[in-house]
Write a structure and sequence with these properties.
Largest sheet of chain A: none
Shape of chain A: globular
Order of helices and strands of chain A: HHHHHHHHH
Number of helices of chain A: 9
Oligomer: homotetramer
Radius of gyration of chain A: 20 Å
Distance between the termini of chain A: 63 Å
CATH class of the largest domain in chain A: Mainly Alpha
Structural class of chain A: mainly alpha
Largest interface: A-B, 52 and 51 residues
Number of domains of chain A: 2
CATH topology of the largest domain in chain A: Tetracycline Repressor, domain 2
Strand content of chain A: under 5%
CATH superfamily of the largest domain in chain A: Tetracycline Repressor, domain 2
DNA sequence: TATGAATGAGGCTTCATTCAT
DNA sequence: AATGAATGAAGCCTCATTCAT
């Protein structure tokens, strides 16, 4: 095996390790809350030394941000895969589903974002995150504008629709994770279904939000 | 002045100080995030010593919970003041407005609740909080059931409607506070109005969620 | 009632309160250990305010010392009441019994003395304590010297005998309070009896320490 | 040097540091009393940072217990080294000497044990301590039982003899450390000798406790 | 590159003592 | 004299980050 090959493999392994760390961190953050998870716990989970983590990431905050970026990139990937389809409802539906599917994860990211911005930490990565997100948003905006041209959506600024959906999604997540309200929801699946339907058609002209029709 | 009177005044002042501490704590939590606010900062803000705080509250967690309870009691007060009115839409509207009006506060409480429950701290107060909240919920449920009898609401379990509204409110809050999405909303007031309307009529039969009609 | 009488009664009540505080303090120290007992707890137990305690005693250390002095004075009282009797064994026996009877109390005082001396607190009271104790010791020494003249005790320095008895008493107390060794003693009374007998005759010439003869 | 060797050396050094911390802690506890010694003082004494202490021990209480266990293990070691010898008096004598030789240390441990048990701290280590001590006790019990078979000891339950010796040792320690009684003892060595002799023969049949015969 | 021991700033909490009423 | 609210020094412990090997 040549040196080049070796170096490539090494780089490969390094990337792989990075992914492992992020995966472990995410899992632990979700399970215990980011405040109760120490860098050492993450290292243990991956089976490496604490110092090694700092070979990959400068600070714990950077881990936070990379997780969030990864999430947003997955969303971008989803959008790319849908792009070009005819079904105009598909994109918002997928967006909505994606976000609502893993409530705790999104909730975590929301918390992290507020925290990281409050501390003004790692501004470059915050910028990167926002750039990706803006692109994703753009996809949505364009879809919505098409919907408005097709005269199926209320003629309000596009972001009203997005924001509405975002709000509902965000809220639905909060609801389903609320230790208190959880008790009141018997059939989670049915309720999720209900929410998604309302969410998607909420901004439609005419019979908005109607379910099962 | 009699001794009784004196004692009463002292008790009064003690209560007052308690309120001051909670107010200061809330203000600081909202401004810097609860993690960046130390007990000492709260004391400084009120202009008292660190130790004094602990004459009023056993732990920082207790401060968290008392703030949340206060909030929920304000809501209860609101419900009481409305009770007995004819306008069936009034209650949900007020609920929705109340929650959406002070986004950061609610968001803070949501974060705190998750944190406090995760740490299993001050369970008696958590119980108290949930009791009050359950009562508030009851008010809503009853109103909604009346709405369903009056055949203006979709015949799904009442909490579907509440949950929906909760979710939207929660989400709207998250949205309006999101450092990222904020940039996209030009006219906050108009948007809030839009959301509130959608929120209230979302679950209506027929022309749900329609605005200005 | 004249002013004098009133003043006298007041003084009387003041003394009484002082005694109450000391009693309460002792009880609490014995139950929870002096470190876990706050001045506030003592005040609550007596049913007075915390500040009042400081009208009677300058510091918590002073309370410690006054308790110890009271104890030593009780011992002096005991010696006085015996003085003049013929039975030469009576004094040591009473001394030994007195100390061994309330193990935890003595242990507490022992702990306190070390603590207070280490901190060099309230030296006047420490002196007072030692003066009283020296007097008590003197009573013992004289009794022992008489025993030696009567040729019933080993002719070693008198304090050897006292110290021996002290040591055994102290040790017996430690033993009976040791959470560990306690498990090994089935019949406490019988064992105490055994100890006391050994203690008294330990220094005798000839058949020393023999039991039941 | 191989990696294995390196790791071994590191582990070795880690152990060594642990010992250093315990030694420093013990020295400080003995000198100032455990309450006046802060974790930071221990760290300073060793010449390390405060946090490092917590890499080795979870709490200050754990340090207390490990010191006590170490002490008890030394005793066990002593017993092991004697085991099998013919001289039946050797074991109790060594036990007695061991305990009486370092009075302040034992006294410290006695205080610590009571404290730690009152706080119900680190129960696993308390158990471990008691297990070791029970084994040590067993050695003594067996020796004593042999003495009774040989008809040289009073036929009371074996633990009476142990307890007696324990009590005397404990008491002797308390005595020699008592800031008050200390003044009365001129020749410490002679007195210790006196005590040890009494201690060992105290329970003998016949001429018990006689010295130099 | 990987490691993990070491660091120390910083947080929460306790409680003896003071002092204005 | 009695009170108890207020104080703040001081202690224990956590953990992100550094750095020598």
């Amino acid at each position: 095996m040549g040196d080049l090959e070796k170096a490539a493999r090494k780089a490969q392994e390094f990337r792989q390790r990075e992914r492992e760390i992020l995966d472990a961190a995410l899992a632990l953050f979700l399970e215990h809350g980011e405040d109760r998870v120490t860098v050492e716990m993450i290292a243990d989970q991956v089976g490496i030394g604490k110092g090694t983590i700092y070979k990959h990431f400068e600070t714990k905050n950077e881990i936070y941000l990379l997780l969030m970026i990864r999430y947003e990139e997955d969303l971008a990937e989803l959008f790319r895969s849908i792009d070009g389809e005819d079904d105009r409802e598909r994109l918002p539906r997928e967006y909505f589903s994606f976000r609502i599917q893993q409530p705790r994860r999104y909730q975590l990211f929301d918390r992290l974002e507020n925290k990281v911005i409050k501390e003004q930490a790692v501004p470059e990565l915050v910028d990167k995150l926002h750039t990706i997100r803006a692109k994703n948003l753009d996809s949505l905006v364009r879809t919505i504008e098409q919907g408005m041209k097709a005269d199926t959506l209320e003629p309000v600024p596009p972001y009203y629709h997005i924001a509405l959906a975002w709000a509902l999604a965000h809220g639905a997540v909060g609801l389903m994770e609320s230790p208190f309200y959880q008790k009141y929801i018997d059939d989670k699946e049915d309720f999720t279904d209900f929410l998604i339907n309302v969410g998607i058609r909420m901004g439609n002209k005419g019979q908005r939000g109607r379910r099962d029709d």
